[in-house]
Amino acid sequence: MIVAGFGFRQGASVDSLRAALNLTSARPDLLATAASKAGSPALQALAQDLGLSIHAVAPSDLRAQATLTHSAAAIAAHGTGSVAEAAALSAAGPGARLTGPRKTSPDRMASCAIAERDAP
């Protein structure tokens, strides 16, 4: 399973999200983000365009994940170093691993991280 986790600022566009995803070169099976961001029109549009579902990650599950990168804003708002990385890991499930640090869209409005988990 391949999960694309997203962190993004309010007002991020679908183009920002798509740009961050494209920087990963991944073809995800599922999109994920913090529960508070899952209803974003931009993320909903991206999911529809890709034919994928969105996994909304609870705050406690975000905080439980070890991330490769650390943003002061993400720590203050969500209790994790990277919403994108934590969401990807949480949604991918036990034994998941990040393929690398999050990638940030050129406009700095969105980030995307990829987590993979081998099939059980």
Poorly predicted sequence stretches spanning 5 or more consecutive residues: none
The dominant shape is: globular
Q: Count of helices?
A: 5
Strand content: 15-25%
Arithmetic mean pLDDT: 95
Quick one: how many beta strands?
Answer: 6
Q: What's the CATH first level? A: Alpha Beta
Which value, in Å, is the CA radius of gyration?
A: 12 Å
The CATH topology is: Nucleotidyltransferase, domain 5
Distance between the termini: 10 Å
Tell me roughly what share of residues is in helical segments: 25-40%
Name the CATH superfamily classification.
CobE/GbiG C-terminal domain
SSE order, one letter for each helix or strand: EHEHEHHHEEE
Structural class category: alpha/beta
Query: What CATH architecture do you see?
Result: 2-Layer Sandwich
Protein name: Precorrin methylase
Keywords: Methyltransferase, Transferase
Domain CobE/GbiG C-terminal: 2-115
GO molecular function: methyltransferase activity
How would you explain this protein's 3D organization?
This protein is globular. With 120 residues, it is α/β, with parallel strands linked by helices. It has helices at 14-24, 41-50, 59-63, 72-78, 83-92; strands spanning 2-8, 30-34, 54-57, 97-98, 103-104, 110-116. It has a single domain (2-116), classed as CobE/GbiG C-terminal domain (Nucleotidyltransferase, domain 5). 42% of the residues are buried. Strands 1, 2, 3, 4, 5 and 6 form a 6-stranded mixed β-sheet that branches. The mean pLDDT is 95. It has 5 helices and 6 strands. The termini are close together. InterPro entries: CobE/GbiG_C (IPR002750), CobE/GbiG_C_sf (IPR036518). One of its GO terms (biological process) is methylation. Residues 2-115 form the CobE/GbiG C-terminal domain. It comes from Pararhodobacter oceanensis. This is Precorrin methylase.
